[in-house]
Amino acid sequence: MNKFFISNWKMNLTVADSIVFSNEISSAINESNIKDDIEIIICPPFISIPYCFQILKSVSKIGAQDISKMDGAKGAFTGEISAKMVSDYADYVIIGHSERRLNQKETNQDVALKGTNILKNNMTPILCIGETEEERKTGEYISILINQLNESSKGLDNKMIVAYEPVWAIGSGNSCNLEQIIEVSGQVKAIFGDDTPFVYGGSVNEENCQELLSQKEIDGVLVGSASLSLDSFIKMINSINSD
Ligand code: PGA
């Protein structure tokens, strides 16, 4: 299976900054002889997607960070962006990120609706799940995660990338340890099949990226803040190559 390197820009970079950064990372990827079995996916804010697509299309895929749950390609839904609208540029869409579950109160049911819209438009959902620190402490985190995944992936027929992002590890500087990630990967793959890609996100950086990607149980990484620094981005890309 391919390994995935997914860069989530979140609510960062203006259009002008996105253009500059895309040109920089395009050069970095070109100079780094990335292996064929690595799929790089860059997820800019919606407004920058068409520009980033033009600059990055020969070196990476584009992902959107979210999508409307409303059914259909268009309609009277102020402020919404449909899956159809991004499908000219994107091959992937992140859904169910814990920041959206928390800040926008998105439910598993909302996430499942989004997933279906993504598949209908021939893109692949990157479905995020993750437990809070309190949930981990209860010891019930595996059943919590599997329930999140079962409910959020209704109707997807396992056509998704599962992104395990423990809430306590995101943006904290404290990545989950390998044993913890591998335990969750084993549980997810036992239920959803070995062919369902399992990626990890949460404080991935140039120090831990290579080790994470070299585990057979981990099919890729989803990187937030470290992928916004050109220096870290280049180091992570190069570490992929040197394993
Ligand atoms: P982080 O974010 O790498 O900054 O921890 C990851 C994510 O939320 O996708």
Write structural notes for this entry.
The chain is of the alpha/beta class and 243 residues long. Helix content is 40%, strand content 16%. The longest helix is centred in the N-terminal third of the chain and has 17 residues, at 15-31. α1 packs parallel to α2 (49-56), α1 packs parallel to α10 (230-241) and α5 packs across α7 (141-152). β2 (38-43), α2 and β3 (61-64) form a beta-alpha-beta unit. It contains 10 helices and 8 strands. The protein has helices at 15-31, 49-56, 83-86, 98-103, 108-120, 133-138, 141-152, 178-192, 209-213, 230-241; strands at residues 3-8, 38-43, 61-64, 92-95, 124-129, 161-164, 198-201, 220-223. It has an 8-stranded parallel β-barrel with strand order 1-2-3-4-5-6-7-8, surrounded by 4 helices. The two termini are 16 Å apart. The structure holds 2-phosphoglycolic acid (PGA). 2-phosphoglycolic acid (PGA) binds next to β8. 2-phosphoglycolic acid binds at residues 8, 165, 170-171, 201-204, 222-226.
Please sum up the structure shown.
This protein is α/β, with parallel strands linked by helices and 243 residues long. It has helices spanning 15-31, 49-56, 83-86, 98-103, 108-120, 133-138, 141-152, 178-192, 209-213, 230-241; strands at residues 3-8, 38-43, 61-64, 92-95, 124-129, 161-164, 198-201, 220-223.
